[in-house]
Amino acid sequence: xxxxxxxxxxxxGPAPVRAPTRHLxxxxxxxxxxxxxxQTDVESEDDYxxxxxxxxxxxxxISEFVWARQHNRRMVLVWVAxxxxxxxxxxxxAWTVGSNLDGLL
Length: 105
Fold this sequence. Notes:
The chain contains 3 helices and 2 strands. By secondary structure, the chain is mainly alpha-helical.
């Protein structure tokens, strides 16, 4: 009764990582400098870094986006009107057939 229970070893810890974590770039200093195109005319550094293009997105004029958006709105309205007209015609036909069912049979 005065005996101690046998000593049990502690469970093993987590297995070691097989593949080390890959190093990720953290900031601008970790990125390589972009290769600059050969400059034939005199351009300043600011012109190379940033070309201010107003009124365009991805080379497409904003007016084209506005036109496409208006066109899509019109098409939605046309389709809603067509669906409502077809639904009204089907409802009218069903009403007519339902009210004249005795005469048809």
